[in-house]
Records
---
Amino acid sequence: MLKLRAYAKINLGLRIVRKRGDGYHDIETFFHRVLPFDEVTLEPADAIVMHTSNPALPIDSRNLCIRAAQLISDEHARGRGARITLGKNIPIGAGLGGGSSDAAATVLGLNRLWELNLPTERLHELALRLGSDVPYFLRGGSAYATGRGEQLGYAPLDLPYWVVLVYPNIHIATAWAFQNTSVALTQPAASLKDVVLSGVANPELLCRSLTNDFEPLVFHTHPAIAQLKERLEALGADLALLSGSGSSVFGLFSDEGDAGNAARILEQDFSVYVTPPNFNTGGSDIPV
Ligand code: C5P
């Protein structure tokens, strides 16, 4: 039996660079690992079956864990089976990559459970067939991402902030958000990679420079999410920003007391997750 943690992510900035011919968009973002995490347990079985703690989740081929297992079983394991148990903590439709993280954990776990020894590049290819941000979750740490989100440069990002992440009980589908957001006409001078990596030493610059191109659409459609961002700022966040295509908003707090206070207040209405500073250390292939 194998037990894996599948962490959530936030996006430290997100730019939609261009619409591509294949129906996807090129983006620029910085993925950053945060709490909470799901738990994916894998056991040998005759067929691919799944159980989950969240009754709202489908446990058939609409579920990315099942799709991941089916793909690896068909292409590399001659139809072997596995029992997948998913302890679900990451909210759904929240811009936190929960389904993608679960899928990546399933890919990594089955590579071990079935003793396939698939190389990293092959795991990356399989992951990308499951979703644009599944490859990021194959490794820990933070990563600067371009292309569909699959061209990754990992960096050890010791973010000197408490992250207060708030899920406003609203579900947003990523495909809808991409379809309804127009590509920015002008591109900013500085690359998001430089903004984030230099911003760790210069928090004021970081907070001034981080934006998310989905905010206008999402805030217009769901004014409650715009209000949540304002509340986080009023409660002392140095920066509050939408994660991915929403619906979650996170606040970066330099003061522990302010972060705890904001979490206590917002918990009365929403699901809140607090990640301590320097939580996320990982490998690097970006020279910093
Ligand atoms: O790759 P994934 O299945 O997560 O994407 C869901 C949908 O979001 C895609 O079908 C596409 O419409 C949109 N998308 C996009 N550009 C990206 C990622 C996703 O247009 N980089």
---
Amino acid sequence: MTTEVSSIPILRTAEETSDKARQWLADGDRVVLVPTMGALHEGHVSLIRLATGAGRKVVVSIFVNPTQFGAGEDLARYPRDFDGDLAKCSSAGADLVFAPSAAEMYPSGCSTTIEPPAIAGVLEGEFRPGHFAGVCTVVAKLFAITRCDIAVFGRKDYQQARVIETMTRDLCLPVELEFGETIRESGGLAMSSRNAYLNEDQRQRALAISEVLAVARDSFLEGTRTSQDLEQIMVMGLRGRVDSIDYAAVVHPETLGPRNAEDPAVALIAARIGATRLIDNRDLHARDQ
Ligand code: AMP
């Protein structure tokens, strides 16, 4: 019996990672970063696959960033599976894993943070104050450390993708962004590291989230166009299945704010099932997702 041991290089320090990136850049390669918090699943793997290509060197960062968790959130119990992560990175075609400690990312004296753009203030921003400041700061640091030309993010975290897009543009960061579609389990549940917290009953109830997003999309395509009506449809469908709803919102895809009935629309949900908080979203125009 052969035991597969992942051979992917792992670097723990910013300095070594920057040095490696400099070598690659000097050789004419482009560096592509896929930032993650580990406990990798097929959603992450799809982003790594998207990142690979001729002349590209793919760095996957694995870092459970403490500054994006609020008090009382799940930082201490966030799922971890480093060996599994390495195997997935390796088989998906990554070239390097950057897995720093919190002390490496935030040495004493590191006190500069990024003030996120205005679109960070709604939805997740209302329910997770400080979350996007933590995300923006760590992403900017990861861009700088890895010297990436390209960074890949998932549309699963729709608002995060918009916030990072805005930050990158506003700060003229020399990084091109690529976005991957949401990968779902067979029943429709969006893959998430946090799905590991769900028991069988909770997993069944979690299906309500993707189901009502699909219902909202169908209703939109059939002519229900006001955010209020669409939001009501989602809330009705979630009631009795999820334990609480942080938001079930239909907003403008650009501003993440109010829209007119004739405007494009994206639906976003954050709901709790037991102690687990799940998010998902759907572009209401798209027929297949
Ligand atoms: P995380 O490890 O949860 O911070 O996620 C790292 C990256 O993977 C982010 O860009 C997420 O948007 C993306 N991601 C998470 N879940 C999925 C999914 N189900 N499909 C595609 N991308 C995902």
